[in-house]
Amino acid sequence: MNNRHFDALIIGGGVIGLSCAYFLARTGKRVQVLDRARIGHGTSYGNCGLITPSHAEPTCRPGRIGSVARKMVNASAAFRVVPGLDRERWKWLAAFARNCTQSRSDEIMQAKISLLNSSRTLTEKLIKLESLNCDWHDLGLLNVCNSDQGLKELTHMAEQLQALDIPCTLLDQQAVHARESALNDDVIGGLFFPKDAWLNPAMYTAELAQACRDKQVSIEEQCDIGTIHHKDQRVESVYTRLGDFTADHYIIATGAETPELLKPLDIPCPIQPGKGYSITSRKPEVCPSHALILHEANMAVTPWNDQFRLGGTMEIAGFNQSMNKKRLELLIQGSIDYLKDHIGTGVPEKWFGFRPMTPDDLPMIGQPGEWSNLMLATGHNTLGMSMAAGTGRLVAELIAGRKPHIDPTPFKPDRFA
């Protein structure tokens, strides 16, 4: 194959890479997307599809490191860092601990709010503009609890988020059941977020890929990256099984696999794979009308037009490719603890994927160091779908030299150098 040159070449065809391609194409750039597998069949496939400006509270927050340490040996913990001999994992945990202060938590939350709010607005506009068929629902999200401690935590969360102008309403037992009839009698309260929404992530990613193709974006699947040729902190070409590709700008959007790709370039990238699970079935007879967060179980429930997904858990233990039955059982038990009808009929689809977890809960967006034509768009932790549209627009603005619509400073990759 002859060498092909593009204005922008994106490595990674998940929702982040496609969002970058879409917004770059809208600026008139000639764009190439390369993906080692099939478009949208990584983490963008099996997540719960939540678009949640409410999810501003960082994973790293005061008191969290002690909780993580206590749960290291508990295989049933919803959030777990598995101890081992992996030096990078311990370095990640140490950096995570340094971010678990109140001042740092406040900074992280402000940065997340800007990107989440931007993405929420842009996602809905994109869906309407391109007429994307993706099972979009904007009825709001309910975070529900079944313990006094959980209700106390939701009350504190409501106070914190309302102070940051994130709309939410605290609901007592009667009010939460009036709003959502699928909850069982054990649920004693909840927090309603009216601006949150949800979609089917596989449908959205496929539709977004087609919208990119309609804008003349070239997309190559099953295209492993061999070598990234570089000289003097400038990428010169990318070698694949299809031959060499060259571009004016290169964007890395490869999620949890980014550190391995950047290793030959000697670019610091403290991302750990956070393994999460989901179970998808037909809708149960008594199905929620809202997307839900089951607070104590730390998991999500997403109802679509003809499907129903349970998703969650977090295990930082490297790229373990085995299907852990205990993690799946946590999802089933969680739904039983909160819902009248916990799963639909038929054979459920069981899935796991690896979220790209940074130690400060913020993505890496921008130019790493002095690399003149390389940009990262990765490390979105558990919020890739929620942050994708804002990330795509920000990347397009930075490459075009336009004024960014949000402050890119908190997301600079150099913060880990």
Give the arrangement of secondary structure elements.
Layout: E1 4-11, H1 15-26, E2 31-34, H2 43-46, E3 50-51, H3 64-70, E4 79-81, H4 87-98, H5 102-130, E5 141-145, H6 148-163, E6 169-171, H7 173-179, E7 189-193, E8 197-198, H8 201-214, E9 218-220, E10 225-230, E11 235-240, E12 243-252, H9 258-262, E13 272-282, E14 291-294, E15 299-303, E16 307-316, H10 325-338, E17 349-357, E18 364-366, E19 374-378, H11 384-400
Parallel strand pairs: 1-2, 1-12, 2-9, 4-16, 5-14, 12-19
Antiparallel strand pairs: 3-8, 5-7, 6-7, 10-11, 11-12, 13-16, 13-17, 14-15, 15-16, 18-19
Q: TL;DR of this structure?
A:
This protein has helices at 15-26, 43-46, 64-70, 87-98, 102-130, 148-163, 173-179, 201-214, 258-262, 325-338, 384-400; strands at residues 4-11, 31-34, 50-51, 79-81, 141-145, 169-171, 189-193, 197-198, 218-220, 225-230, 235-240, 243-252, 272-282, 291-294, 299-303, 307-316, 349-357, 364-366, 374-378. By secondary structure, the protein is of the alpha/beta class. Strands 4, 5, 6, 7, 13, 14, 15, 16 and 17 form a nine-stranded mixed sheet that branches.
